[in-house]
Design a protein that fits this description.
Helices cover 44% and strands 12% of the residues. By secondary structure, it is of the alpha/beta class. Strands 1-2-3-4-7 form a five-stranded parallel sheet. Strands 5-6 form a two-stranded antiparallel ribbon. Helix 6 packs parallel to helix 9. It starts with a helix and ends with a helix.
Length: 212
């Protein structure tokens, strides 16, 4: 991956971020969105020590190549809930890739995150979410693919997040990193072939209207 970065670095206004993440486990892949109500699913002290050591070694590899890493918290991983994200930040020195959708899935509040972790956020994955869908999939003990299939993540402005407030918050703190619009979903058999393209056109128009 870093070799690919070398091939494009210098062609962008902001340097690319080497994105680190946790792969989770069979147990966590079967229980997305449930760890904040079940601490037994979380890492123990020894697991956190191993995790932090791995992140430190991966971050050092990135920095040796001239790239500052970011860590992407993610549903169905061991860095999913606000508590787990906070533990990761306490135990490492990497920046945070804040993902607004996955944070809601993990029981968090993107607005609070932008205040609490402002000095560590160096990358942003912007999603809008339908909270009722997230709650329904969790209640049904679904897995990650069910959130995507049920369209928990939707075009900007069509969900329950105050996207304008999120954008104001990142501007107020002088954020100059990458803002990546993500809309994780699975196409349905009856979807038009250009469904995803039209969604992304709407997302671009939404941001353009707000000066981005």
């Amino acid at each position: 991956m870093l070799d690919i970065f070398d091939g494009v670095n210098g062609e962008t206004l902001a340097p690319p971020r080497a994105t680190l993440a946790d792969a989770g486990s069979d147990a966590r892949r079967q229980t997305p969105g449930r760890a904040h109500d079940d601490p037994s699913l979380m890492l123990d002290a020894a697991g956190w020590a191993r995790f932090a050591d791995g992140v430190d070694r991966a971050a050092e590899l990135c920095r040796r190549r001239g790239y500052e890493p970011t860590f992407h918290h993610h549903g169905a991983s061991y860095v999913e809930t606000p508590q787990e994200i906070g533990e990761m930040l306490d135990r490492t020195d990497v920046g945070l890739c804040l993902d607004t959708g996955h944070l809601v899935l993990g029981g968090g509040d993107p607005h609070q995150a932008l205040i609490e972790w402002a000095d560590r956020i160096n990358h942003l994955h912007l999603k809008d979410v339908r909270r009722a869908v997230i709650e329904r999939v969790i209640a049904a003990e679904g897995v990650m693919v069910d959130f995507w299939r049920e369209r928990a993540f939707c075009p900007l402005g069509e969900g329950d997040l105050d996207i304008d407030a999120i954008l104001r918050a990142i501007r107020d703190r002088g954020f100059t990193g990458w803002l990546v619009v993500e809309q994780d979903m699975l196409p349905r058999p009856d979807d038009p072939v250009d469904h995803a393209v039209r969604d992304q056109q709407r997302n671009r128009e939404y941001l353009r209207a707000r000066g981005l």
